[in-house]
Write a structure and sequence with these properties.
- By secondary structure, the protein is an alpha+beta fold.
- 46% of the residues lie in helices and 17% in strands.
- It contains nine helices and eight strands.
- It has helices at 2-7, 10-26, 31-38, 42-54, 70-93, 98-108, 114-123, 170-179, 212-215, and strands spanning 58-61, 65-68, 149-150, 159-165, 186-192, 199-203, 206-210, 218-222.
- It has a six-stranded antiparallel sheet with strand order 3-8-4-5-6-7. A two-stranded antiparallel sheet has the order 1-2.
- Helix 5 packs across helix 6.
């Protein structure tokens, strides 16, 4: 496995990380989803997936999508660890806004050498999550998920504390920040429209209507 970690390219790291994120979200990563997320052509995705499959890092089932193997998942978690430590470095030390940290960390993660991530983690005070509340994998690849549920699962009258935001696009994070919907914020469900309509939540004394697509990326710890 050590040789894989030394020889894997930046492109392969990006693919494994993207596959991991999509697999966690929907069970597998489909070619078109990967193409959209990585901003490449479907043909490029197909070629790279074939290469990763030959190396035993993914399994591609036609019409079902791509899944990581055990070795592929280990590598993906290592990339994710470096990415989330980089986000912490950018926000905690360099004071970059949380909405900018994800994009910058996508570049920085590939420059963090294996022998650097542990001292970096120590220097940062061993953070458990990234600025968006998502858990940072340990050096051994262990990922501890905090018990939380989607904001959309709360019934009217129920409340909780925001644990994490799973969508890290800049414009979405900026929008959520303007509403105060950030990790650690107390939020209460006020109304839920039927037929998958919008919800109304209260945060910091103000009420806001959210589309289900926005609410579905917010996870909370129920009170």
């Amino acid at each position: 496995m050590k040789s894989e970690e030394l020889s894997i390219s930046k492109e392969s790291e990006e693919y494994l990380e993207a596959i991991y994120r999509l697999e966690e979200k929907s069970g597998s990563a489909r070619t078109m989803e990967l193409a959209r997320q990585l901003k490449v052509t479907p043909g490029s995705v197909t070629n790279t997936i074939e290469s990763l499959e030959k190396r035993g890092l993914v399994i591609h089932e036609p019409y079902k999508g791509v899944k990581l193997t055990k070795n592929g998942r280990k590598l993906a978690l290592n990339v994710l660890r470096r990415h989330r430590l980089a986000e912490r470095l950018l926000t905690d030390v360099l004071h970059l806004d949380w909405s900018q940290a994800h994009d910058a960390a996508c570049e920085l993660e590939h420059a963090i050498a294996k022998e650097v991530d542990e001292p970096l983690e120590k220097a940062l005070g061993h953070p458990k999550t990234c600025p968006h509340g998502n858990p940072i994998p340990s050096e051994s690849g262990k990922l501890v998920e905090e018990k939380a549920e989607l904001l959309t699962k709360l019934a009217p009258g129920e409340d909780g504390t925001i644990a994490k935001i799973t969508e890290e696009k800049r414009d979405m994070l900026q929008y959520l920040a303007t509403l105060g919907l950030v990790p650690g914020a107390f939020v209460k469900m006020e109304e839920k429209a039927p037929f998958n309509g919008p919800i109304i939540v209260k945060v910091m004394g103000a009420s806001y209507a959210l589309g289900r697509n926005v609410a579905s990326i917010i996870w909370v710890r129920k009170s």
